Structure formats: structure tokens, C-alpha cells
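Journal club side-thread
Mid-discussion, someone asked how the predicted structure for our own chain would compare to the paper's figures. Pasting it here so we can look after the session.
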Amino acid sequence: MPTQIPLWVTLVLAIIAIMGPIGGALIGGMITARRDDRRWERELEREEARWQRETEREEARREREIKREDHRYWLELRATTYTEVIVHWRKFTYVGHGIVAVLKLAAKKGVQPEMKERYSALKEAEGELRDALAKSELYSTLKMHIMSIDARTSASNFRRSVSETDTALIKSQDASDNLAETIANLDKCNKEQVEFARAIKNELETPNGTY
């Protein structure tokens, strides 16, 4: 009599037969999904790296643009304030030349010079020059700042020597030394004005001038 296979064995074999392909499909799907995940991660990493490079290039471009704009802004400010300095310096020396001419004539004739209005004009011109120099120093380089200090000193020395020469002439004293000092101080102002203008030209024409 043939041996009869138990029913449960048949069921187990059937289940195994069914689960095998399903399990294989599941495992294969998991492997495929994992492979796809890794591929996606690599794509994300490449995309992130590309985005990072583009961001860095854009930031570098913006930084260069900001520097150019900043440099242009400072140059415009310097050009404006330096121009004011030159204008007021020329006014100061113009008034100074008129005063020296009057003092020379008074010393030659031995008379008292009419200096009240001229001296007031000189003080006014000096005040305007000082204001212009102070404004320019807000934006100037160290070199121009030092030249501004020298300019104020020279203007002050000239005005002082004018006052001393005028006082000597009023008192009918020998004013030759005072007059010589006044002329020398005015010559120094003229020289420094030329040097200041030349320094401005060199600075503003330099492509990468100092901030």
C-alpha cells in the first residue's frame, strides 16, 4: 500500500513554492531600490557640489563688483573734496599775492598799508581752505592727509607773517625781514599747492588706488 504524504507537507511545499518567487522578487526589489537610492544620493551630491561651485562663483563676482563700486565711490568723493581744496587754495594764494604787492609798495614808499579789508579777506580764505582740507581728510589717503596738515601750517604761517609785517610798517619799523619771511611763506604755499595738485592727479589716475 503506497505511503500517503501528509497534507501538511503538501501545504508547506506549496507555500514554499509560492513564497520563493515572491521572496526573490522582494529581495531583488530591495537590492534594486538600494541601488537606485545610492544613484540618487550620488546625483544629489553632484548637484550640491555644482550648486556650491556656482554659488561661490556668484559670490566672488558680487564681491568684485562691490569692490569696483566702492573704489569708484571713494574716487568720486576724493575728486570732489580735492577739487574744493584746490579752488580754495588758489583763492588763498590769490589774495596772498595781492597782499604781498601792497606790503611791498608800502615798504618801498615808507607808508602804512591799507590792510584791514585785505587781511579780513585773507582770514576768510584761510578759513574756507581749512574747511575744505578737513572735509577732504575724511576720504583721503595717508599721504594726502599729511599734505593737508602741511597746507594748514603753511597758510597759518603766511597769515602770521603778513600780520607781523603790517604791524612793523604801521610802527614805522624796518620791515624788510618780516616782508622777506612773508614772501617766502607765500612761495611755500604756492609750491605746496602745485605738489598737492600733482599728488591728486597721480592718485586719481591710479587704477587701484589705496582706499
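Post-session note: Residues 207-211 have pLDDT under 50 and may be disordered.
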